[in-house]
Amino acid sequence: MRTPLELSRLRWDTSVPAGERLRRTGARAAQIGLTTLATRARLAQLKGSARDGARERALVLRDVARRILTLHGLELDAEGPLPIGPALLAANHVSWLDPLVVASLVPCIPISKADVSSWPVVGSIARELGVVFVERGNPHSGVKVMQESRVALSHGVSVLNFPEGTTTRGATVLPFRKGLFGLARRAGVPVVPITLAYDPPELAFVGDDAFLPHWLSLAGARRAKVRVHLGMPLASLDYGSAEELAQATRERVKALLEEVA
Hints:
Strand content: 5-15%
Number of helices: 9
Order of helices and strands: HHHEEHEHEHEHEHEH
Structural class: alpha/beta
């Protein structure tokens, strides 16, 4: 059961009158429905090789992400160089919005927790767009993620990973898991450190937060902003092991987060 504090956090923008919040939420829900239909129609028209298909899905995801962020009035403030060619994108993890934010900037295939696949609207369209779902603690799922990520990189598509393995409030950076850093070294692709910071901070999505109430708060809000900082790529082969690369990337993400704060 949620505490009163947790319940109040779901209604973070109290400057919006109840009637205006309801109207805005309904309008955004309708637009998301139309965006979903348009996206499925576009995906149905994709043709060509598996390589071309992977790139096209990443481009479709980029366009969808931009549309959804715009619909919700989420202002994006980004700085830093966009990667050229396939890379492992390694970001701190704050909200369910994170994959949309990064994908709106860099065509990529995000890795997401398996729970997201069952979310209304979001889950089904994410599967069609090629999002890779991982079930934490399931070795078979981990192997599948590695295989699909390797294929994506070989097709010239960047892979978005959140190596903390879970979300935080955004003030700290948890230890990074090494898995995909080993893949980056084997594939010889760079690692791009990325930080995300939200305003208001209540946009963080952690613990037992439920998707629908969190989305309703965002959909009915007057304003929201996310700052994204893309750091200089790390040459994966400059590091002697996946552990060293993971640690170096984490240190870079921590430094970038301090700059954003």
